[in-house]
Amino acid sequence: MGIQKTRAVILSMLPYRESSAIVTLYTNEYGRVNGIAKGVRKRSKNSLPLERGFLIDLILYIKQGRDLHTLADINICDYYPEIRGDLYKTAIRDAAFELLLKSVMASEPHPELFSLLQQFLISLQSTDATENFALLWKFYLKTAGFLGFAVRLDSCRCCGREILISEGGFLAVENGCLYCSKCGVKRSLPETYIQGTVLQKLNGSLSPLKLPSDELIRLTRLAVSYCSFHMDIRPEFKSLKFIEQISR
Ligand SMILES: [Zn+2]
Protein backbone atom coordinates (compact mmCIF):
# COMPACT_ATOMS: atom_id res chain seq x y z
CA MET A 1 0.00 0.00 0.00
CA GLY A 2 1.32 3.42 -0.98
CA ILE A 3 0.42 6.83 0.39
CA GLN A 4 0.56 9.68 -2.11
CA LYS A 5 -0.36 13.33 -2.09
CA THR A 6 -1.90 14.39 -5.39
CA ARG A 7 -4.04 16.98 -7.16
CA ALA A 8 -7.16 15.86 -9.01
CA VAL A 9 -10.34 16.85 -10.80
CA ILE A 10 -13.54 15.09 -9.69
CA LEU A 11 -15.06 13.49 -12.80
CA SER A 12 -17.97 11.79 -11.06
CA MET A 13 -19.39 11.14 -7.59
CA LEU A 14 -21.84 8.48 -6.46
CA PRO A 15 -23.37 8.47 -2.96
CA TYR A 16 -22.15 5.51 -0.92
CA ARG A 17 -23.64 4.40 2.40
CA GLU A 18 -24.71 7.08 4.89
CA SER A 19 -22.24 9.87 4.25
CA SER A 20 -19.54 8.59 1.90
CA ALA A 21 -19.05 8.70 -1.85
CA ILE A 22 -17.44 6.65 -4.59
CA VAL A 23 -15.44 9.14 -6.57
CA THR A 24 -13.77 8.97 -9.97
CA LEU A 25 -10.84 11.35 -10.16
CA TYR A 26 -8.52 12.49 -12.87
CA THR A 27 -5.12 12.94 -11.24
CA ASN A 28 -1.83 14.31 -12.44
CA GLU A 29 0.34 11.39 -11.35
CA TYR A 30 -1.95 8.37 -11.71
CA GLY A 31 -4.43 9.28 -14.45
CA ARG A 32 -7.90 8.06 -13.68
CA VAL A 33 -8.44 6.80 -10.12
CA ASN A 34 -11.53 5.40 -8.42
CA GLY A 35 -11.81 5.69 -4.66
CA ILE A 36 -13.96 5.91 -1.58
CA ALA A 37 -14.13 9.25 0.20
CA LYS A 38 -15.51 8.68 3.69
CA GLY A 39 -17.80 11.18 5.35
CA VAL A 40 -17.67 13.75 2.56
CA ARG A 41 -21.44 14.03 2.24
CA LYS A 42 -21.82 15.23 5.83
CA ARG A 43 -22.77 18.89 5.79
CA SER A 44 -20.57 21.14 7.81
CA LYS A 45 -20.96 24.86 8.39
CA ASN A 46 -17.76 26.09 6.86
CA SER A 47 -17.11 23.79 3.95
CA LEU A 48 -18.70 23.30 0.59
CA PRO A 49 -19.87 19.71 -0.01
CA LEU A 50 -17.72 18.01 -2.64
CA GLU A 51 -19.11 17.93 -6.17
CA ARG A 52 -18.21 16.79 -9.64
CA GLY A 53 -16.01 19.36 -11.36
CA PHE A 54 -14.02 20.48 -8.30
CA LEU A 55 -10.22 20.65 -8.28
CA ILE A 56 -8.93 19.08 -5.06
CA ASP A 57 -5.76 18.15 -3.22
CA LEU A 58 -5.90 14.85 -1.40
CA ILE A 59 -4.03 11.93 0.05
CA LEU A 60 -4.42 8.74 -1.90
CA TYR A 61 -4.01 5.40 -0.14
CA ILE A 62 -3.25 3.07 -3.00
CA LYS A 63 -4.07 -0.58 -2.60
CA GLN A 64 -2.17 -2.61 -5.17
CA GLY A 65 -4.34 -4.79 -7.36
CA ARG A 66 -7.56 -3.13 -6.20
CA ASP A 67 -9.95 -0.95 -8.19
CA LEU A 68 -11.09 1.21 -5.31
CA HIS A 69 -8.54 3.17 -3.31
CA THR A 70 -9.06 5.35 -0.25
CA LEU A 71 -9.20 9.13 -0.54
CA ALA A 72 -8.45 11.27 2.51
CA ASP A 73 -7.51 14.78 3.65
CA ILE A 74 -9.45 16.32 0.78
CA ASN A 75 -8.99 20.07 0.30
CA ILE A 76 -10.87 22.05 -2.35
CA CYS A 77 -8.45 24.13 -4.47
CA ASP A 78 -11.03 25.52 -6.90
CA TYR A 79 -14.73 24.92 -7.41
CA TYR A 80 -15.02 27.02 -10.60
CA PRO A 81 -18.07 29.02 -9.47
CA GLU A 82 -18.78 30.46 -12.95
CA ILE A 83 -19.11 26.93 -14.37
CA ARG A 84 -21.06 25.63 -11.39
CA GLY A 85 -23.61 28.45 -11.65
CA ASP A 86 -24.21 28.13 -15.41
CA LEU A 87 -26.27 25.32 -16.91
CA TYR A 88 -24.60 25.50 -20.37
CA LYS A 89 -21.06 25.60 -19.03
CA THR A 90 -21.88 22.68 -16.70
CA ALA A 91 -23.24 20.69 -19.66
CA ILE A 92 -20.13 21.43 -21.76
CA ARG A 93 -17.90 20.45 -18.82
CA ASP A 94 -19.78 17.17 -18.37
CA ALA A 95 -19.40 16.38 -22.07
CA ALA A 96 -15.62 16.78 -21.69
CA PHE A 97 -15.64 14.57 -18.56
CA GLU A 98 -17.70 11.93 -20.37
CA LEU A 99 -14.96 11.51 -22.96
CA LEU A 100 -12.38 10.86 -20.22
CA LEU A 101 -14.74 8.52 -18.35
CA LYS A 102 -15.38 6.52 -21.52
CA SER A 103 -11.88 6.47 -22.99
CA VAL A 104 -9.21 6.46 -20.30
CA MET A 105 -8.65 3.32 -18.26
CA ALA A 106 -7.83 3.48 -14.57
CA SER A 107 -4.20 4.01 -13.56
CA GLU A 108 -2.75 5.03 -16.91
CA PRO A 109 -0.89 8.24 -16.14
CA HIS A 110 -1.19 11.03 -18.74
CA PRO A 111 0.12 14.24 -17.09
CA GLU A 112 -0.45 16.12 -20.38
CA LEU A 113 -4.16 15.20 -20.21
CA PHE A 114 -4.36 16.43 -16.65
CA SER A 115 -2.97 19.83 -17.60
CA LEU A 116 -5.27 19.96 -20.65
CA LEU A 117 -8.22 19.27 -18.33
CA GLN A 118 -7.18 21.95 -15.87
CA GLN A 119 -6.65 24.47 -18.68
CA PHE A 120 -10.05 23.57 -20.15
CA LEU A 121 -11.79 24.28 -16.82
CA ILE A 122 -9.97 27.60 -16.38
CA SER A 123 -10.89 28.68 -19.94
CA LEU A 124 -14.51 27.50 -19.62
CA GLN A 125 -14.85 29.43 -16.40
CA SER A 126 -13.54 32.70 -17.80
CA THR A 127 -14.71 32.90 -21.42
CA ASP A 128 -17.82 34.24 -23.04
CA ALA A 129 -20.73 31.84 -23.76
CA THR A 130 -20.02 31.91 -27.52
CA GLU A 131 -16.69 30.15 -26.85
CA ASN A 132 -18.10 27.17 -24.93
CA PHE A 133 -18.49 24.81 -27.88
CA ALA A 134 -15.13 25.66 -29.44
CA LEU A 135 -13.46 24.88 -26.09
CA LEU A 136 -15.14 21.47 -26.06
CA TRP A 137 -14.09 20.66 -29.65
CA LYS A 138 -10.50 21.63 -28.86
CA PHE A 139 -10.60 19.47 -25.74
CA TYR A 140 -11.87 16.47 -27.74
CA LEU A 141 -9.35 16.85 -30.55
CA LYS A 142 -6.41 17.44 -28.21
CA THR A 143 -7.38 14.44 -26.08
CA ALA A 144 -7.57 12.35 -29.25
CA GLY A 145 -4.15 13.71 -30.21
CA PHE A 146 -2.58 12.80 -26.85
CA LEU A 147 -3.94 9.28 -27.20
CA GLY A 148 -2.38 8.94 -30.66
CA PHE A 149 -5.23 10.02 -32.95
CA ALA A 150 -4.40 13.59 -33.97
CA VAL A 151 -6.28 15.03 -36.94
CA ARG A 152 -3.96 16.17 -39.76
CA LEU A 153 -5.09 19.50 -41.20
CA ASP A 154 -2.34 19.97 -43.80
CA SER A 155 -3.33 18.36 -47.11
CA CYS A 156 -6.42 16.86 -48.75
CA ARG A 157 -6.67 13.09 -48.42
CA CYS A 158 -8.08 12.82 -51.95
CA CYS A 159 -6.23 15.27 -54.24
CA GLY A 160 -3.25 16.04 -51.99
CA ARG A 161 -3.77 19.79 -52.37
CA GLU A 162 -2.89 21.91 -49.38
CA ILE A 163 -5.95 22.62 -47.23
CA LEU A 164 -6.77 26.33 -47.23
CA ILE A 165 -7.97 26.80 -43.69
CA SER A 166 -10.22 29.73 -44.64
CA GLU A 167 -12.15 27.54 -47.14
CA GLY A 168 -12.95 24.90 -44.56
CA GLY A 169 -12.83 21.16 -45.19
CA PHE A 170 -14.57 17.84 -44.65
CA LEU A 171 -13.40 15.54 -41.88
CA ALA A 172 -12.42 12.06 -43.03
CA VAL A 173 -13.36 10.50 -39.68
CA GLU A 174 -11.77 7.08 -40.21
CA ASN A 175 -8.53 8.48 -41.66
CA GLY A 176 -7.90 11.34 -39.24
CA CYS A 177 -7.47 13.99 -41.92
CA LEU A 178 -9.44 16.38 -44.12
CA TYR A 179 -10.85 16.47 -47.64
CA CYS A 180 -10.53 19.87 -49.26
CA SER A 181 -13.71 21.81 -49.98
CA LYS A 182 -13.85 20.58 -53.63
CA CYS A 183 -13.24 16.86 -52.97
CA GLY A 184 -15.54 16.94 -49.94
CA VAL A 185 -18.44 18.35 -51.97
CA LYS A 186 -17.94 15.60 -54.61
CA ARG A 187 -18.12 12.96 -51.90
CA SER A 188 -21.29 14.62 -50.59
CA LEU A 189 -20.74 14.15 -46.88
CA PRO A 190 -22.35 17.37 -45.62
CA GLU A 191 -22.44 16.18 -42.01
CA THR A 192 -18.62 16.13 -41.93
CA TYR A 193 -18.18 19.73 -43.15
CA ILE A 194 -16.05 22.02 -40.96
CA GLN A 195 -16.38 25.73 -41.76
CA GLY A 196 -13.25 27.81 -42.36
CA THR A 197 -14.09 29.96 -39.34
CA VAL A 198 -14.21 26.78 -37.21
CA LEU A 199 -10.86 25.51 -38.53
CA GLN A 200 -9.40 28.94 -37.78
CA LYS A 201 -10.89 28.75 -34.29
CA LEU A 202 -9.34 25.31 -33.75
CA ASN A 203 -6.03 26.82 -34.88
CA GLY A 204 -6.27 29.45 -32.14
CA SER A 205 -8.14 32.33 -33.81
CA LEU A 206 -9.64 34.77 -31.31
CA SER A 207 -12.53 36.07 -33.42
CA PRO A 208 -15.91 34.93 -32.09
CA LEU A 209 -17.80 32.10 -33.83
CA LYS A 210 -21.22 33.06 -35.08
CA LEU A 211 -23.01 29.80 -35.81
CA PRO A 212 -26.63 28.75 -35.19
CA SER A 213 -27.13 26.23 -32.40
CA ASP A 214 -27.97 23.31 -34.73
CA GLU A 215 -24.58 23.82 -36.42
CA LEU A 216 -22.85 23.86 -33.02
CA ILE A 217 -24.58 20.58 -32.20
CA ARG A 218 -23.69 19.04 -35.58
CA LEU A 219 -20.01 19.92 -35.13
CA THR A 220 -20.06 18.56 -31.57
CA ARG A 221 -21.57 15.30 -32.87
CA LEU A 222 -18.81 15.18 -35.48
CA ALA A 223 -16.10 15.57 -32.81
CA VAL A 224 -17.77 12.89 -30.66
CA SER A 225 -18.01 10.49 -33.62
CA TYR A 226 -14.31 11.08 -34.36
CA CYS A 227 -13.30 10.28 -30.77
CA SER A 228 -15.71 7.34 -30.52
CA PHE A 229 -14.38 5.77 -33.72
CA HIS A 230 -10.69 6.06 -32.78
CA MET A 231 -11.00 5.34 -29.06
CA ASP A 232 -13.41 2.47 -29.62
CA ILE A 233 -16.26 3.95 -27.56
CA ARG A 234 -19.58 2.21 -28.19
CA PRO A 235 -22.18 3.74 -25.84
CA GLU A 236 -23.82 7.01 -26.77
CA PHE A 237 -22.76 10.24 -25.07
CA LYS A 238 -25.53 11.11 -22.60
CA SER A 239 -24.13 14.59 -22.08
CA LEU A 240 -24.56 15.35 -25.79
CA LYS A 241 -28.27 14.56 -25.63
CA PHE A 242 -28.57 16.92 -22.70
CA ILE A 243 -26.74 19.70 -24.58
CA GLU A 244 -29.17 19.21 -27.48
CA GLN A 245 -32.14 19.50 -25.15
CA ILE A 246 -31.04 22.72 -23.53
CA SER A 247 -29.92 24.28 -26.84
CA ARG A 248 -33.34 23.99 -28.50
ZN1 LIG B 1 -8.98 17.59 -52.49
CATH topology of the largest domain: de novo design (two linked rop proteins)
Q: What is the 3D shape?
A: elongated
Q: How much helix, percentage-wise, in residues?
A: 25-40%
How confident is the prediction overall: mean pLDDT? 92
- Sheet with the most strands? 5 strands, mixed, barrel
Major sheet: arrangement of strands: 1-2-3-5-4
The low-confidence runs, each spanning 5 or more residues with pLDDT under 50, are: none
Counting DSSP H or I runs of 4 or more residues, the number of helices is: 8
In this entry the ligands are: zinc ion
Kindly provide the radius of gyration, computed on alpha-carbon positions and rounded to a whole number of angstroms: 20 Å
SSE succession: EEEEEHHHHEEEHEHHH
Q: Mind explaining what this structure looks like?
A:
The chain has 248 residues and is α+β, with helices and mostly antiparallel strands. It is 38% helix and 25% strand. It has a 5-stranded mixed barrel with strand order 1-2-3-5-4. It has a 4-stranded mixed β-sheet with strand order 6-8-7-9. The longest helix has 19 residues, at 213-231. It starts with a strand and ends with a helix. The model has no long low-confidence stretch (mean pLDDT 92). Zinc ion (ZN) is lined by residues 156, 158-159, 161, 179-180, 182-183.
